[in-house]
C-alpha cells in the first residue's frame, strides 16, 4: 500500500483532484490538510462526498468520468465493474457516465 494521512485510496484521491481542478480549486492536499487531525485516517469516500458537494454548490453536475489505474498487481479486471459501481454510488452518478480502465506497464519499468 501507500503511505498517506487518510486511507490513501489512489483512485478516489485522483477523482477528488479532478473534480477540484475542474472547479478551479486547489488540490486535495490543500483542501483536506494533512495537518488537520480531522482527516487522519479518513476514508477517501468522505473526500469524494465533499468534492461532489462543492461541485453541486458551484452549480455543476458530473458529465463523465474516465479514470485509468496503472498497476501490475493486483489484476483489476475481475473487480472493475464493482469498483465502477461503487464509484458511481459515491459520486451520485449514473454508472453509464463512469468509466474505469486498468492497465499494466507489462513489467517494462518501475511501475510495471
Automatic annotation (TrEMBL):
<comment type="pathway">
    <text>Isoprenoid biosynthesis; isopentenyl diphosphate biosynthesis via DXP pathway; isopentenyl diphosphate from 1-deoxy-D-xylulose 5-phosphate: step 4/6.</text>
</comment>
<dbReference type="GO" id="GO:0008685">
    <property type="term" value="F:2-C-methyl-D-erythritol 2,4-cyclodiphosphate synthase activity"/>
</dbReference>
<keyword id="KW-0414">Isoprene biosynthesis</keyword>
<dbReference type="GO" id="GO:0046872">
    <property type="term" value="F:metal ion binding"/>
</dbReference>
<comment type="similarity">
    <text>Belongs to the IspF family.</text>
</comment>
<dbReference type="GO" id="GO:0019288">
    <property type="term" value="P:isopentenyl diphosphate biosynthetic process, methylerythritol 4-phosphate pathway"/>
</dbReference>
<dbReference type="InterPro" id="IPR003526">
    <property type="entry name" value="MECDP_synthase"/>
</dbReference>
<keyword id="KW-0456">Lyase</keyword>
<feature type="domain" description="2-C-methyl-D-erythritol 2,4-cyclodiphosphate synthase">
    <location>
        <begin position="1"/>
        <end position="112"/>
    </location>
</feature>
<keyword id="KW-0479">Metal-binding</keyword>
<dbReference type="GO" id="GO:0016114">
    <property type="term" value="P:terpenoid biosynthetic process"/>
</dbReference>
<dbReference type="Pfam" id="PF02542">
    <property type="entry name" value="YgbB"/>
</dbReference>
<dbReference type="InterPro" id="IPR020555">
    <property type="entry name" value="MECDP_synthase_CS"/>
</dbReference>
<dbReference type="InterPro" id="IPR036571">
    <property type="entry name" value="MECDP_synthase_sf"/>
</dbReference>
<protein>
    <recommendedName>
        <fullName>2-C-methyl-D-erythritol 2,4-cyclodiphosphate synthase</fullName>
        <ecNumber>4.6.1.12</ecNumber>
    </recommendedName>
</protein>
Amino acid at each position: 500500500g501507500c503511505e498517506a494521512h487518510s486511507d490513501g485510496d489512489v483512485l478516489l484521491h485522483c477523482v477528488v483532484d479532478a473534480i477540484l481542478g475542474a472547479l478551479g480549486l486547489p488540490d486535495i492536499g490543500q483542501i483536506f490538510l494533512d495537518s488537520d487531525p480531522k482527516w487522519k485516517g479518513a476514508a477517501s469516500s468522505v473526500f469524494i462526498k465533499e468534492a461532489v458537494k462543492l461541485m453541486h454548490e458551484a452549480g455543476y453536475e458530473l458529465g463523465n468520468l474516465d479514470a485509468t489505474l496503472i498497476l501490475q498487481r493486483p489484476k483489476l479486471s475481475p473487480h472493475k465493474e464493482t469498483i465502477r459501481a461503487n464509484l458511481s454510488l459515491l459520486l451520485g452518478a449514473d454508472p453509464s457516465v463512469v468509466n474505469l480502465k486498468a492497465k499494466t506497464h507489462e513489467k517494462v519499468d518501475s511501475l510495471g
